[in-house]
Design brief:
Elements: H1 5-8, H2 16-24, H3 33-53, E1 63-67, E2 73-75, H4 76-91, E3 95-100, E4 107-108, E5 114-125, E6 136-144, E7 165-171, E8 175-180, E9 186-191, E10 196-201, E11 212-214, H5 225-235, E12 245-246, H6 252-262, E13 265-268, H7 281-294, E14 298-300, E15 320-323, H8 325-334
Parallel strand pairs: 3-5, 11-12, 11-13
Antiparallel strand pairs: 1-2, 3-4, 5-6, 6-7, 7-8, 8-9, 9-10, 13-15, 14-15
Bound molecules: 1,6-di-O-phosphono-alpha-D-fructofuranose.
Length: 338
Amino acid sequence: MDHSTESYHRTDLMTITRHVLNEQSKHPEARGDFTILINHIVLGCKYVCSAVNKAGLAKLIGLTGNSNVQGEEQKKLDVLSNEVFLKALVSSGRTCILVSEENEEPILVEPSKRGRYIVVFDPLDGSSNIDCGVSIGTIFGIYTVKDQENPTLEDVLRPGETMVAAGYCMYGSSCMLVLSTGSGVNGFTLDPSLGEFILTHPNIKIPKAGKIYSVNEGNASNWDEPTAKYVENCKFPRDGSSPKSLRYIGSMVADIHRTLLYGGIFMYPADKKSPNGKLRLLYEVFPMSYLMEQAGGQAFTGKQRALDLIPKKIHERSPIFIGSHDDVEEIKELCGAF
Ligand code: AFP
């Protein structure tokens, strides 16, 4: 699709609903449940986007005074976003288990409202960036349950590989929803005048190699040798090539979005203080790894392919090196994983 202004005046815009319906038509057995689920996620994203845009005006900036399950202080927007997504997902009638960063336990949807999908999500990631207006986002991953009548914790503690879809919504200079349903990655931009997400970035492919590395260098004194060597080589390449640029927003959605479009690597490695890194497996590492692989990149934990990990707990953390194929290949070699 041509992104020019001229083409924008076309009348056959590919909205996200049309796109998902097209995908659905490739599966004759599909009954439209997934389309309904995505529409409810989209509604949550629009609501949060609107709240983020007017946060300062609507007194939504600041803390609630409580902490979440990770022991992190909850911002007002964290709490609001969680409520919005929980209500949207339950009322879709298509979900049975919900796992949110903000809830200690998985939420079992009451039987009368149950469907066959499990949604794991971080309603508002990067919340330390809210109060200064930096891009933040929602991350989600979707699985199907084995037995809709008896959803169990085992249905959630499965490798990322078994997800049927994943995506994120970035609340930035524009609001963008990036989605994969298992056949490539597509990006949709919210047109505020229509209130619709329009396909603006079809079939996103990450460049095979990048010129950007993205990491919190403040943790360097605690890094292990492969991470330290990798970053050293980004700055002082041994093959005489130009050094890479460092970009780090501290908001995973924004850092991954840039990595997907421009190429490069984003990492949150294990270190001496945090042997499992910081990022949560189920609703940060898995969905982003799924998207990255669908876009032709790789995601590696320092030991193995991220999507092969089997979680033991819903709020488990994992180190992550994610991005362009060649860049991740380099860190894999340094870690001795081939
Ligand atoms: P917050 O939600 O506390 O801002 O954390 C954001 C995040 O989970 C992820 O979005 C970032 O990539 C990462 O943490 C940043 O962590 P550091 O502040 O330790 O660099």
